[in-house]
Design a protein that fits this description.
- The complex is a heterodimer.
- Chain A contains nine helices and seven strands; from the N terminus they run ααααβββββαββαααα.
- Chain A is of the alpha+beta class.
- In chain A, β6 and β7 form a beta hairpin.
- In chain A, α1 packs parallel to α2.
- The two termini of chain A are 24 Å apart.
- Chain B has three domains: 80 residues, no CATH class; 113 residues, Butyryl-CoA Dehydrogenase, subunit A, domain 2 (Beta Barrel); 124 residues, Up-down Bundle (Butyryl-CoA Dehydrogenase, subunit A, domain 3).
- Chain B starts with 6 loop residues before the first helix and ends in an 8-residue tail after the last helix.
- Chains A and B meet through α5, β7, α6, α7 and α9 of A and α8, α9 and α11 of B.
């Protein structure tokens, strides 16, 4: 048993961090878009642990777009239905795709291609109506199903991988908010001293760290086992931890954190959106109980 | 990254499981005289099977088991509902300190007797005026021929009512700064000048005691580490207490499994979230421990992050048992395993450094926030 990231995975995470920190968004360049695409379609067929490493960093940098859908779920669904038509372009980042996955994913994130899972039938889909999300960068659409592409046996796996990627993204969002809030608490002075010296502030931030540190092993463990039980447990814990990070971040920043101009808004609203995306806390707690 | 156990570890797990299935029985509370004796007898049975201290070297009664095998042992131990460890203070707190700072003579003399519970140890950290602020210790030791004379008072001393020996910090230099001038000393609870006054805990049993020390002689052989270096020596024990050794994940995964079973017998919709969260929390702590085991096996150290796990497991333990009592409704107040577990859990956020102190440690040492007024 070795329950730790490999040196290559640590390196990949660090490289992706540097890449995103430099403001680069061409995810194909660093291999992210090819991760979940099978090798025969030009992808990397990466281990789910690699996906988790990537998504924690994507969350860390609050990268917008149909990431879970385009990078993870659609490539998994298309692997046995219609792969040759779209997967090479998804792998190279030439196109993006999104999917409606009833009942837990009723809307699609805006993308170039849309799909709809209709029972076990995978269909193409068309956008019919735009919806506004709490996250201003998250553009959602309602779709209607189109041509049936065939039956897929991979719906369960695609859903679980989507949930897992979403959980990892939440972890990264939470970690970023802890970092920015800790920095703020060190520098913001009131009553003649940094507010980070007050126990009322310190203890809230300590609780944020505890939540994130104990959620990460669940996310990594679920990437190893990929059981619905472990994936759902990871989503619940990562969602709770990230949400606690968001609430604490806002409270410690005070009024400045409540403004749209402050960066925190991007992380805060993404967190709120992703807590409910790919199955909310109640859905996943039910799945945990069912599996036990 | 994997969670697979190797064949030898699986074989070890099967042996432990089979032994426990044959031997485990329910004992009365270790905080009564008869229960204490029964727990001491249980420790001897464990020792005869070389299962009392599996991670210790063979020469002291262990098996030289890796940390991973120790975690596996603990999972089996708690899953089997095996008795609490009356020797816990010795084997989990004092022993790691003896391995790190003891002399070969001390190890040879003390560890085998500890492994068989021939000598049961009580901790003697807190004093009436030194709780969270442990460095405020006033009990002191005065130099005498061949050793030291202890004077002062210790309190909240777990197991001291029936134990044989004690370990703790004593001020040996009253002029030194408060974290210096402390020395880690081992003493005999039956020695002249020792008065032990048992204190009944919430459950009515004397799980801890006050210890009054009136010129109690401690030979030089029972100084652990260097004179004046006691704070550093003791802190090396503290992270074991907070982190891995005192609270193995097996304790929580076993209790969480029982909680889910209890929920199935009376599935109260309103308590669903808490049941699931207790299970998830136990699983999180288990996996986090596997991560720590991996890190330590690869040469890492257990540092201030033990404060993270201490807060987590102690709050998980309370939440888990509160949920069980709430599921039991009016039967929750009645004597039984869940009530015992609940009362035991309530102490967790207080001992081994209160959770307030741990959160300060996390904020200052892990997040780099400024030290402020407490």
């Amino acid at each position: 048993m070795r329950f730790a990231l490999s040196a290559e995975q640590v390196q990949f995470g660090a490289a992706l961090h540097d890449f995103l920190a430099a403001g680069r968004l061409d995810l194909a360049e660093i291999g992210v878009t090819a991760l979940a695409v099978p090798e025969r379609f030009g992808g990397l067929a990466a281990d789910p642990v690699d996906l988790v490493v990537a998504f924690e960093e994507l969350g860390h940098h609050a990268v917008a777009g149909p990431l879970v859908e385009s990078v993870v779920v659609v490539p998994t669904l298309l692997a046995d239905v219609g792969g040759d038509r779209w997967l090479p372009d998804l792998a190279t980042g030439k196109t993006t795709a999104s999917v409606v996955f009833p009942p837990h994913v009723p809307y699609a994130h805006e993308a170039e291609l849309y799909f709809l899972l209709d029972g076990e039938t995978l269909r193409t889909a068309d956008p019919v109506k735009e919806l506004a999300s709490v996250d201003l960068e998250r553009r959602l659409v309602e779709v209607v199903g189109g041509t049936a592409l065939g039956t897929t046996t991979r719906a369960g796996r695609a859903f679980d991988l989507g949930v897992l990627a979403c959980a990892a993204q939440l972890l990264g969002l939470g970690r970023a908010m802890l970092e920015m809030t800790t920095a703020h608490a060190r520098h913001r002075t009131q009553f003649g001293r940094p507010i980070g010296g007050f126990q009322a502030v310190k203890h809230q931030l300590a609780d944020v760290l505890i939540g994130l540190e104990l959620a990460r092993p669940l996310v990594h463990g679920a990437a190893v086992t990929l059981t619905s039980l472990d994936v759902s447990a990871a989503k619940v814990a990562a969602g709770d931890a990230a949400y606690r990070a968001a609430r604490t971040a806002l409270q410690v920043h005070g009024a400045i954190g409540y403004t749209a101009e402050h960066d925190l808004a991007r992380w805060l609203t993404k967190t709120r959106a992703l807590v409910g995306a790919w199955g909310g806390p109640s859905t996943h707690r039910d799945r945990v109980l069912e599996a036990l | 990254m994997d969670l697979d156990l190797d064949d030898a570890t699986l074989e070890f797990r099967d042996e432990v499981r089979a032994w426990l299935a044959e031997h485990v029985r329910r004992l009365s509370s270790m905080d009564t005289e008869a229960g204490f004796a029964a727990h001491r007898e249980w420790e001897r049975e464990l020792a005869d099977a070389r299962l009392s201290v599996v991670s210790w070297p063979e020469e002291f009664g262990g098996r030289g088991a890796s940390l991973l095998r120790w975690v596996v042992f603990e999972e089996e131990y708690h899953a089997a509902g095996a008795p609490g460890r009356v020797s816990q203070n010795g084997i989990f707190l004092l022993a790691p300190t003896l391995f790190a700072h003891g002399t070969p003579e001390q190890r040879a003399r003390l560890l085998p007797a500890m492994a068989r519970a021939d000598e049961v140890w009580a901790q003697a950290w807190s004093e009436p005026e030194a709780g969270s602020d442990l460095a405020a210790i006033r009990s002191h030791a005065v130099r005498t021929d061949g050793g030291w004379l202890l004077r002062g008072q210790k309190t909240w001393s777990s197991r001291a009512a029936f134990a044989d020996k004690g370990f703790g910090l004593f001020r040996t230099d009253r002029d030194a700064p408060r974290h210096r001038g402390l020395t880690y000393l081992l003493f005999d609870l039956r020695a002249d000048g020792v008065t032990v006054r048992p204190i009944a805990q919430l459950d009515g049993e004397p799980g801890f005691a006050e210890i009054f020390l009136d010129d109690v002689f401690v030979p030089d052989a029972d100084v652990l580490g260097e004179v004046g270096d006691g704070w550093r020596v003791a802190m090396s024990t503290a992270s074991s207490e907070r982190g891995l050794s005192l609270r193995s994940p097996g304790r929580f995964t076993a209790a969480a499994g029982r909680l889910v079973d209890l929920w199935r017998t009376s599935p109260d919709r309103a308590l669903r979230d808490r049941v699931v969260d207790a299970w998830i929390g136990a699983q999180a702590y288990r996996l986090h421990t596997f991560g720590t085991v991996t890190r330590l096996a690869e040469g890492g150290a257990l540092g201030p992050e033990s404060s993270v796990t201490k807060v987590f497991w102690s709050e998980l333990d309370v939440a888990l048992h509160e949920t069980a009592l709430d599921l039991l409704g009016p039967r929750g107040e009645l004597e039984g395993e869940w009530l015992d577990g609940y009362l035991f859990s309530l102490a967790g956020p207080i001992y081994a450094g209160t959770n307030e102190i741990q959160r300060d440690v996390i904020a200052e040492r892990l997040l780099g926030l400024p030290r402020g007024d407490r």
